TrEMBL record:
It comes from the Bacteria. The lineage of its organism: Bacteria, Pseudomonadati, Bacteroidota, Bacteroidia, Bacteroidales. This is Endo-1,4-beta-xylanase.
Length: 348
């Protein structure tokens, strides 16, 4: 029998992938067979985001999300909803009135409630858990100045959890964010989880997105976040795991010289050098072993995509990169770090 990820990790955590609409609609049969074979959990990469599923105030678009949920249901998978409230890919109308001005706090609360209730009710009993609020806190621990925060204030988060629990009392509810190893952000989330619990609200898990790189985070900070989040009593989930194989580009770097820019955009025009690939695999092996070490508190690992060619990282932080962040390469072959691990040949 073929060694699979879902069998290998069955006593540790569920193992999943973010799924694009093209895949659900049958346009990528290779990705379909990989996902069906290896994963027991899926999350929608884009189709449940506000601008997609609720593009205008009285218009919901269900086709893609329905197909995604059917895909998971047909395969008996754990289905994760992503995401109910997020400043990015928020439908343009959501926080505005007809003149383009911000709506009042009361109006925005009502819209949040309607949106959360309508979306969750449609998939009640089918979705295992929801990313209720995505990316609400900045690295320094302050609140992101999103429309929700600007109009309602901090209260928008407990309200969102209240509305979500009312809509589907059986669904798990999560907070989700990136850079969760940064101390200021870690501390702010610990405080927020405790605050939600103190108010008697349901919160089941904290999502550490884990869009990581070859040089960040360091494993001590990463582990510290796993432990401190778990100590608040919630489950810990690695919700969007991928690891760029390319040198980190400083955000905001302004490269006016086009040769330097191209070198930064595509540092390996002849493909990923063997030593970089070996380093990438070794680091991913350590990352997976860190998760296994904490499998008593980590309940899910989700990769943000299936094979390298479909990763958002090929467009980030600039278009036209060629990155190698996922467990399968562009030919849909499982990479050594994972193949060795599930074959029982892990280096550690
Ligand atoms: O659907 C349109 C298509 O019609 C159009 O032709 C094309 C042209 O650019 O754009 C398509 O939309 C793109 C969409 O992905 C689907 O491919 C958007 O431009 C693009 O912005 C969007 O990017 C997504 C990104 O979230 C948006 O912020 C990525 O696929 C998705 O992987 C990424 O996922 C996020 C998580 O939700 C939250 N955490 C970070 C993570 C990575 O950014």
């Amino acid at each position: 029998p073929v060694a699979t990820m879902k069998d290998y990790f069955k006593n540790d955590f569920t193992i999943g992938a973010a799924i694009p609409v093209s895949h659900v609609n049958g346009a990528d049969p290779k990705a379909d067979s990989i996902v069906t074979l290896h994963y027991n959990s899926i999350v929608a990469e884009n189709c449940m985001k506000c601008e997609k599923i609720h593009p205008e105030e009285n218009v919901y678009f269900w086709d893609d999300a329905d197909a995604f949920v059917k895909y998971g249901t047909d395969r008996g998978m754990e289905i994760i909803g992503h995401t109910l409230l997020w400043h990015s890919q928020l439908a343009p109308w959501f926080a505005k009135d007809s003149l383009g001005n911000n709506v009042s706090a009361d109006v925005l609360k009502q819209r949040m409630k309607d949106h959360i209730t309508t979306v969750m009710t449609r998939y009640k009993g089918k979705i295992h858990g929801w990313d209720v609020v995505n990316e609400a806190i900045l690295d320094d621990g302050s609140y992101r100045k999103s429309p929700f925060y600007e109009i309602i204030g901090e209260e928008f988060i407990p309200l969102a959890f209240q509305y979500a629990h009312e809509a589907d009392p059986d669904a798990e509810l999560y907070l989700n964010d990136f850079s969760m190893s940064v101390p200021g952000k870690r501390d702010a989330y610990v405080k927020l989880i405790k605050d939600l619990k103190a108010r008697g609200l349901r919160i089941d898990g904290i999502g550490m997105q884990s869009h990581i790189g070859m040089d960040y985070p360091n494993m001590e900070d990463y582990e510290k976040s796993i432990v401190e989040f778990a100590n608040t009593g919630v489950n810990v989930m690695m919700t969007e795991l991928d690891m760029s194989a390319l040198p980190t580009v400083q955000m905001g770097a302004n490269i006016s010289d086009s040769v330097a820019f191209n070198a930064m955009r595509n540092p390996y025009p002849d493909g990923l050098p063997a030593e970089v690939s070996a380093h990438w695999n070794a680091r991913m092996d350590s990352v997976m072993n860190l998760y296994r070490k904490h499998s008593d508190v980590i309940t899910r690992i989700t990769f943000w995509g299936t094979q390298d060619g479909m990763s958002w990282k090929n467009d980030f932080p600039m278009h036209g990169r060629t990155d190698y962040p996922l467990p399968f390469d562009r030919e849909y072959n499982l990479k050594p770090f994972m193949q060795n691990m599930i074959n029982g040949e892990s280096s550690s």
